[in-house]
Amino acid sequence: MEKIGVQESKSPSELIDGRIAELGDWRGEMLGRLRALIRDADPDVTEEWKWRGVPVWEDAGMICTGETYKAVVKLTFAKGAALPD
Question: Of 9, 75, 83, 85, which one has the fewest beta carbons inside 10 Å?
Fold first, then answer.
């Protein structure tokens, strides 16, 4: 794991690239695939790195976060309950 000072010198996109590579298993592959889908769906999306290691995608506000755990990769939508089914 990198020190905080080193992380601050990298862009959010570089940090997300690093997380995907660091995972090195199906979780990294899945996070990369979800990232590509988000970018395809919204070409104006910006990437952020918040809360010491959580990828966040924004466009006029937070869209979602991408979290990786031991057994799951989870997208959390900021206003998910308000999204149409």
Answer: 85
